[in-house]
Amino acid sequence: MVPQQRAARLGKLHGALLVVASLIDKPTNLGLCRTCEIFGASALVLDNLRHVSDKHFQSLSVSSELWLPLLEVKPAELADFLQMKKSEGYCIVGVEQTANSQSLQDYQFPEKTLLLLNEREGIPANLLQMLDVCVEIPQQGIIRSLNVHVSAALLIWEYT
């Protein structure tokens, strides 16, 4: 692909959904790059851009990383990044089951939404307190946790 084509494609009108995956380190879960590109997210934030060269990432992303702006924000820099995005008018949304979570089926996403994702133990307490809202995906089974890529896909689709 010639650089002009890529630059033109990256300049397309994106939505204002910013997907932050800095707390995800499994390349297989970072395949959500493809979902972000397909549904027009403005960018995907990773903890390290080296993930793009991983074979598992590449097999799942099927070149979507060429068409989607990628940013690097280390986990230690996330609090400052979230604060900066808040000051730019973003609503910080976490996917988390808390006492005050709103159901995904009832939640209306603001145009400028930052979606904070996390694997395993949930969003760290220092970042949880920075969220404007926690959104929960209604579930009926015994297992109370979806794979982060699945959760992300559901929220990105609902935003779209």
TrEMBL record:
CDD domains found in the cross-reference section: SpoU-like_TRM3-like
GO biological process annotation, one example: tRNA methylation
Domain tRNA/rRNA methyltransferase SpoU type: 17-156
Keyword line: Methyltransferase, Transferase
Gene3D superfamilies tied to this protein: 3.40.1280.10
Keyword Methyltransferase: yes
InterPro entries xrefs: Alpha/beta_knot_MTases (IPR029028), SpoU_MeTrfase (IPR001537), TRM3/TARBP1 (IPR045330), Trm3/TARBP1_C (IPR044748), tRNA_m1G_MTases_N (IPR029026)
Pfam families: SpoU_methylase
Sample GO molecular function, one term: RNA binding
Entries under PANTHER family matching the protein: METHYLTRANSFERASE TARBP1-RELATED (PTHR12029:SF11), RNA METHYLTRANSFERASE (PTHR12029)
Annotated protein name in UniProt: Si:dkey-85a20.4
Organism of derivation: Labrus bergylta (ballan wrasse)
